[in-house]
C-alpha cells in the first residue's frame, strides 16, 4: 500500500439524511476496505445523480433483464486511475491488489448461504425495509425512489406495511430465516465467522445487509438478529464498521 496522504480508493456510495453509509451492497466493499486498512474517501451520491456521475466517469452500465443501469458501489483506484462498478468485480479487484489480509471471496458454504439468504432476506427487506427507506432520503431522492419503486410495485410503498401484510411475510420466511442462520453457524466451534476464525466476503454480505437494515430501522434490525447466526456475524464484524462516512 502506498504511503501518501492521497487515498488509494475513492468510494462512491448512496447518500441519506443520516450522513452515513446505508447501502447493503456498498457496505460489503466498505467492510473489505476497513478490514484491509486500505485508505479511501467517500463520495455520497443522491439517487438521481448516480447515473450522470458514473456515466461521466466512463463506467459502462450493468445489463439486466430490466435494462441497463448504473449502480453503487463504484470505485476509483487512484494509483492506476481505474474505475470499477458493482460489488463483486470491486471485491475481486481489491483482493488482487491488496491480498493481505486475505478475504476469501467464495466457498461452497458461502455460496449456499448467499443464495438462500437472498431469497429470504430479499422478501423481508422488500416488505419491511424498502417502504421505510424513503424516510432517510433527501426530498430529491425521495421523489426518485418513490417514482421508480411504485412504478414497479403498482401501488404506494406504504401499502406494504398495511393490513398485516408485513407480518404475513415474516411468518412465511421465519423457518427459512432460521435455517440460513444455522448454516451461518456451521463453523461456530472455530470462530464467529462463516468459515471460522477469519472473515470472508460472505460475512461482509451478511453484516452489510444487517447494518443497512439497522440504519433504516432499528426495530427491523432487532427482529433480524433474533434469528441464530446473524447477530454473531454482525458483532464479529463491528470492528470493521468504524469508518462509515
TrEMBL record:
<dbReference type="Pfam" id="PF22041">
    <property type="entry name" value="GST_C_7"/>
</dbReference>
<feature type="domain" description="Glutathione S-transferase UstS-like C-terminal">
    <location>
        <begin position="118"/>
        <end position="217"/>
    </location>
</feature>
<dbReference type="InterPro" id="IPR036249">
    <property type="entry name" value="Thioredoxin-like_sf"/>
</dbReference>
<dbReference type="InterPro" id="IPR004045">
    <property type="entry name" value="Glutathione_S-Trfase_N"/>
</dbReference>
<dbReference type="Pfam" id="PF13409">
    <property type="entry name" value="GST_N_2"/>
</dbReference>
<protein>
    <submittedName>
        <fullName>Thioredoxin-like fold</fullName>
    </submittedName>
</protein>
<dbReference type="InterPro" id="IPR054416">
    <property type="entry name" value="GST_UstS-like_C"/>
</dbReference>
<feature type="domain" description="GST N-terminal">
    <location>
        <begin position="22"/>
        <end position="96"/>
    </location>
</feature>
Amino acid at each position: 500500500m502506498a504511503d501518501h496522504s492521497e487515498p488509494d480508493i475513492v468510494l462512491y456510495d448512496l447518500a441519506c439524511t443520516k450522513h452515513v453509509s446505508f447501502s447493503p451492497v456498498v457496505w460489503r466493499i466498505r467492510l473489505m476496505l476497513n478490514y484491509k486498512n486500505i485508505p479511501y474517501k467517500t463520495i455520497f451520491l443522491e439517487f438521481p445523480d448516480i447515473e450522470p456521475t458514473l456515466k461521466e466517469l466512463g463506467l459502462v452500465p450493468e445489463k439486466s433483464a430490466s435494462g441497463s443501469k448504473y449502480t453503487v458501489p463504484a470505485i476509483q483506484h487512484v494509483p492506476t486511475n481505474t474505475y470499477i462498478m458493482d460489488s463483486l468485480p470491486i471485491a475481486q479487484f481489491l483482493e488482487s491488489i491488496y491480498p493481505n489480509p486475505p478475504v476469501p471471496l467464495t466457498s461452497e458454504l458461502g455460496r449456499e448461504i448467499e443464495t438462500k439468504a437472498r431469497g429470504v432476506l430479499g422478501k423481508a427487506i422488500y416488505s419491511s425495509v424498502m417502504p421505510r427507506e424513503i424516510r432517510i432520503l433527501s426530498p430529491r431522492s425521495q421523489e426518485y425512489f418513490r417514482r421508480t419503486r411504485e412504478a414497479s410495485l403498482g401501488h404506494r410503498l406504504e401499502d406494504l406495511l398495511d393490513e398485516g401484510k408485513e407480518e404475513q411475510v415474516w411468518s412465511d420466511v421465519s423457518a427459512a430465516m432460521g435455517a440460513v442462520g444455522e448454516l451461518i453457524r456451521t463453523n461456530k466451534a472455530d470462530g464467529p465467522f462463516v468459515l471460522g476464525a477469519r472473515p470472508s466476503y460472505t460475512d461482509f454480505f451478511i453484516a452489510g445487509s444487517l447494518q443497512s437494515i439497522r440504519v433504516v430501522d432499528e426495530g427491523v434490525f432487532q427482529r433480524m438478529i433474533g434469528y441464530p447466526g446473524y447477530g454473531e456475524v454482525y458483532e464479529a464484524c463491528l470492528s470493521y464498521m468504524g469508518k462509515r462516512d
